[in-house]
Amino acid sequence: MSKIRVYQLAKELGISSKELIEKLSEFGVEVANHMSTLEEDEASIIMEFYDIDNKKPKDKKTSKKQNRENDETKGKEAVHEREEKKQESPKKIISIPEKIIVKDLAEKIGKSVSEVMGKLIALGVFATINQEIDFDTAEVICGDLGIFVEKEEVKEEVEFGLEQEEDKPEDLRPRPPVITVMGHVDHGKTSLLDAIRKTNVTAKEAGGITQHIGASEVEVHGNKIVFLDTPGHEAFTSMRARGAKVTDIAVLVVAADDGVMPQTKEAINHAKAANVPIIVAMNKIDKPNINPDRVKQELAENGVLIEEWGGDTICVPVSAKSGEGIENLLEMILLAAEMLELKANPKRLASGTVIEAKLDKGRGPVATVLVQNGTLKIGDSIVAGSSYGRVRAMMNDKGKAIKKAGPSTPVEILGLSDVPEAGDLFHAVREDKIARQIVEKRKLKVREENLNATARVTLEDLFKHI
Ligand code: GDP
Ligand code: MG
Question: 150, 189, 223: which is closest to 408 by C-alpha?
Answer without folding.
Answer: 223
